[in-house]
Amino acid sequence: MKFEISKSINKILKTIMEHLNKIPAKFIRGGTSKGLYFNSSSLPQINSERDGIILRIMGSPDPNGLQIDGMGGGISSTSKIALISKRIINGLSFLNYNFGQVSMKESKIDWSGNCGNLASGLFEFARLEKDYEDCFESLKLSENNKYFHKLRVWQENKKHEMFIWGNLNAEKNEQNLVKISGIQRPYPPLFVEFKNIIPENANLFPTGNVVDKLELSQNDSIEVTLLSGANPLVLIRPEVLNLKGQEIPKDINYEAIKEKLNLICLMAAKHMKIEITDALRVAWISSPASYTDSSGNFIEEKSVDILSRITTNNRVHHAHTGTGAINIAVACMIKGTLANSCLKNQGKGKELEKRENEIRIGHPGGTMTCEADVEFDENKKKWEIKRAGFIRTARLLMDGFVYV
């Protein structure tokens, strides 16, 4: 009898352990990134325990950075996590989005930033999860609006609202599909909109200047534009790194510029009075020029307003970060910034070829168009971002369980 009871207990314990090791998740491509999307309730509520499980799932740390023993893909764009829950704001349901950038080589997850590309996958996640039905808002279609639905999102890391615009029944309508650079097939468009990304007590330009000078050494000083925006960003000219600005990652010896980039980050963080995290990026920007992107496509000078290459976790990004693109588009709208000086028709966005608030960014993977609406508040004496966003696409890659 005791043997039978012991056997039953062992069976129950085994079932519990199997349940704990088997975690529901969705694997989604959002924009030019992809990652695992979890309901927060599926993971431990103690942060250290939660992070330990996520690292194990992703295959980190891996001294080689390949993450072979996990779901991570060995580069920052495929080593991302979205933790999803629900939040009520002013009586409305919002999808709560907590973004984690998982280190490949270290036992570390950076929860300080945001990922605009991965955010586009939230629409697909919420579409398939009934618990988030009330986070969607139905819209009336107008001449200026091709979307029927809006997903309300609270960005937990940066504490601001986002809206993901799309169509819940898009798979039934093959018209109006779009292709984004870096993704070969067309998909229904999703507009990722950032709202109120500058905290009330903060400034878009942390130093109060549109251009600052960083003293890197006694004989080396450079001009930069420092932005807090969607994620902290340092804008520099490519000449600082002995580059022209049209290069793609395979043409750039990252090891040769890594030390200087690290020094720029260190000095910029001091000026911005922030800690150095994975969210802090450096982008080198230049005036429009023709180039061949990483897929062999010829990008004409007239098809872009500005060129940008941006860092991401010890490499040059294969395309462009969404948050970095937002910051660059915003900076283009403000006279005096390094970004604005790169525009051939300098001035605020509404003066740019009558395309109102659009900025076309040429990057290694092709081009992307961002929208940015900025305004200077005379009372607060600072710039405010009224609205900013870009078009992305997303695709569900896997729906099931991951194992610890």
What this model shows, in words?
This protein is of the alpha+beta class. It has two domains: 20-198 and 394-403, Roll (Diaminopimelate Epimerase, Chain A, domain 1); 212-384, Diaminopimelate Epimerase, Chain A, domain 1 (Roll). The protein contains seven helices and 20 strands. The chain has helices at residues 2-21, 47-58, 116-119, 121-128, 254-272, 322-332, 338-342; strands spanning 22-30, 33-39, 80-89, 92-102, 109-110, 136-138, 149-155, 160-166, 190-194, 212-217, 220-227, 233-236, 281-286, 291-292, 298-299, 306-310, 358-363, 366-377, 382-392, 394-403. The strands form two sheets. The protein has an 18-stranded mixed β-sheet that branches. A hairpin with a 2-residue loop joins strand 10 (212-217) and strand 11 (220-227).
Q: What are the salient characteristics of this protein?
A:
single chain, 404 residues, alpha+beta, Diaminopimelate Epimerase, Chain A, domain 1, 2 domains, 18-stranded mixed β-sheet, two-stranded antiparallel sheet, 7 helices, 20 strands, 20% helix, 33% strand, globular
